[in-house]
Amino acid sequence: MADPADSLLDLTVRDLLDSVAARTPAPGGGGVAALVTAMAAGLTAMAARFGDGAVAERADELRAVAAPLADADAAAYGGFLAAVRRPRDDPGRAEAVARARADTIAVPVVIADVAGEVAGLAADLVLNGNPHLRGDAAAAVHLAAAAAATAAELLAANAKGEQGIAERDRAREIAATARGLADQVDRD
To answer: Ranges for the Cyclodeaminase/cyclohydrolase domain (predicted)?
Structure first.
């Protein structure tokens, strides 16, 4: 297993898979959703390079945003665990937990946003891109939709009281739209 201070992006695929499966709190669903979003963006960029350079460029930008979110999610969750482990009588505990919870909400919001945009780009490539790469573009839609749904689910788990409710609802909308695109791809 890799040192937790190392970036998930620097692990071999084998080490990454072992790290995800390890009995540790992170990487978890958020990190995986970020990496899946980055891979979906990569598939989208590859499929677009056989036709639409502007879409390929945007997909590359989204991949660059999504990939580091895997580490950001792990850091946010680690910060949350540290905050809730503070002694109950610590006068700063409640504020620390609220701040840390906000971080665990903020990262999945961005993952959902990016995944939703990737799903839209890829769905357009399924319909209008190179027909020989339709399967790759469709795979990107499905992967991005799954990542958006995962981010929305994690956001719902992290929201408490009023904190994170608007973000949860927005992520659920993005996930539903991405799922709709995946369903549309299946019908076409």
So the answer is: 12-174
